[in-house]
Amino acid sequence: MPSSEIYRYLDVGRNKVPLDTESYLIHLNDWTPAVAQAMAAEEGRELTDLHWEVIEVLRDFYHRFEMAPSMRPLVKAMTQTYGPEKGKSIYLMRLFPDSPAKVGARIAGLPKPANCL
C-alpha cells in the first residue's frame, strides 16, 4: 500500500493529486487517465496505445487479486490477454524501462508491487 504521508502534489489540470515519496498515489481512487498521462509526462514519456494495453492489464490484475503484479505475473497476464509476443519481459522493458512492473503500476495508479525494490 502507498504511504499515507503526502510528499508532494502532481498537477493534473486544475487538480493537485497527492503523491508519496516514490511518486505513487496516496489515494488510489485519484487515478484517471489524465493522472497517468501527467505521471508519464514527468518522466518524459508519452503513453501510446501499447502502454495503455499494459496499464489496462495492470489495473485488471489489481482488481482481481487486490495487489499489483510483480514482473512474472505481469508477463503471464500480458500473455493471457494479448498473446505471446506481448507477454515477454523484453517487450515490457521497451515500454517501461527500468522496471515495467514498478513503473507501470505507478502510472496505472496502483501500489508498488510487493517484490519490487
From TrEMBL:
InterPro entries: DsrC-like_C, DsrC-like_dom_sf, DsrC-like_N, DsrC/TusE. It is found in: Cytoplasm. GO terms for cellular component: cytoplasm. Its EC number is 2.8.1.-. One of its GO terms (molecular function) is transferase activity. Pfam families: DsrC. Its main location: cytoplasm. Keywords: Cytoplasm, Transferase. One of its GO terms (biological process) is tRNA wobble position uridine thiolation. It comes from the Bacteria. The keyword Cytoplasm applies. The active site is at residue 116. Part of a sulfur-relay system. Belongs to the dsrC/tusE family. This is Sulfurtransferase. It comes from Aidingimonas halophila. The lineage of its organism: Bacteria, Pseudomonadati, Pseudomonadota, Gammaproteobacteria, Oceanospirillales.
